[in-house]
Amino acid sequence: MYTSVRDLPAGPVGTAPAQRVGGTVLALGTVSLLTDVSSEMVAAVLPVYLTLAIGLSPLAFGFLDGLYQGVSVLVRLLGGYAADRFDRPKATAQVGYGLSAVSKLGLLAATGPGGLAAVLAVDRTGKGLRTAPRDALISDSVPPALLGRAFGVHRAMDTAGALAGPLLAFALLLYLPGDYQSVFVTSFAFAVLGCAVLWAFVGERPRVPRSGEAPVRLRSLRGLLADARMRRVTLVSLVLGLLTVSDGFVYLLLRDRGAVEATYFPLLFVGTAAVYLVLAVPLGRLSDRIGRIPVLLGGHVALLVTYVLLLVDTSLVGGAVLVAAVLGGLGIYYAATDGVLAAIAAGLTAPNLRGSGIALAQTAVAAGRLFSAVLFGLLWTAWDQHRALVAFALALLVALPVAWILLRTVDPSSTREPLDA
């Protein structure tokens, strides 16, 4: 097996071998698949577990969901910087995956909001540490012209795990009703297996510094924002993240409207993951061809349509149709934004700052989603779910054309030199 496209034999331009993403991407995809089985098993039962089994209010759930979505804000940049500073992205990612695995055991003991908050913080700290170094490993293993496809392949494998995780959780709870502990133990086992695959099968090739290249320092992180394109990408990512209603709240809205019963709640995550799995590679390839900004913003248009669907009276469309449409919209949104944003950030930064550049963009999204979950929970409690969703939909409708104006000149695939340290 070739370890990357750089190892493939030369061939005529346009031949199939030049389009292969290589073994590094596939190995990291396997790690993410196993890890997502673990994490999505927990994520699929967490809203019901917290609101029904633990009895949290919408506001309290919003706080914990915001913590789950956004605590990695505090460590994403640290993970990217550590990978760049010591040129050890694999080791940094390994620490992150290990923390997330250990946190699954913590769920067995935590019962109150404080303990749950601590466990979720550890889990998301692990995710924050591993994400940018992992994506830097992917970026370093393929040529720039294949970044969209490489991230699409990785995200498709990642999403296969996200598809299997809720199904496994559903099966366990169907066989052992109310036994959330069995879900947490099984989740831990898959997380450990993912760590083992990363350690055994993912290589780390030392990067050869370019002539005159300065070593990465903390001031290099400030230098990332010296590029106006990177500033605009970061700002837009923050605002659009702030206007993204979390999956947990979307699914709770479907449940409260009678479109789905609590028993089948984990299957909602399966539906979204299935759409994501089917579209991740095609939309990644599309972003390589037509540009990544149109695909990124198109994904947010799909999110806006999802909000509108949730405002439609279920008596007009039927519960099953509404569920299918909402899950389809969410799947399109993730397939068009997750890997594409990483490809945009990778294209704007030099190889020695790639982990930090990807981390900066992902941190902006995570920060926005942290405050989004708390804000939506607050609006739901103070007003009601309908008016809270209307407010988010109107804000996103206004933000999208502004985002296009800010990003239309951002072209990560241009010949302009990326920002260096």
Task: Give structural notes.
This protein is mainly α and about 425 residues long. It has one domain (about 25-200, about 220-405): Growth Hormone, Chain: A (Up-down Bundle). Helix content is about 75%, strand content about 0%. Helix 2 runs antiparallel to helix 15 and helix 12 (about 290-310) packs antiparallel against helix 14. It is globular and about 55 Å long. The two termini are about 35 Å apart.
List the helices and strands and how they pair.
Elements: H1 23-53, H2 58-70, H3 73-86, H4 89-109, H5 113-140, H6 147-175, H7 180-201, H8 218-224, H9 228-242, H10 247-256, H11 265-290, H12 292-311, H13 314-317, H14 319-348, H15 354-382, H16 385-407
Outline of this structure?
By secondary structure, the protein is mainly α.
Q: How many domains make up the coordinates? A: 1
Instruction: Predict the CATH topology.
Output: Growth Hormone, Chain: A
Unreliable runs, pLDDT <50, ≥5 residues? 1-18
Q: Determine the fraction of residues in helical runs and give it as a percent range.
A: over 70%
CATH-level-2 architecture:
Up-down Bundle
Write down the overall mean pLDDT.
83
Q: Evaluate the radius of gyration.
A: 21 Å
At the fourth level of CATH, the homologous superfamily is MFS general substrate transporter like domains
N-to-C SSE series? HHHHHHHHHHHHHHHH
According to DSSP, the number of beta strands is 0
Individual helix count: 16
Distance between the termini: 34 Å
Task: Tell me the name of the CATH class.
Answer: Mainly Alpha
**How would a crystallographer describe the biggest sheet?**
none
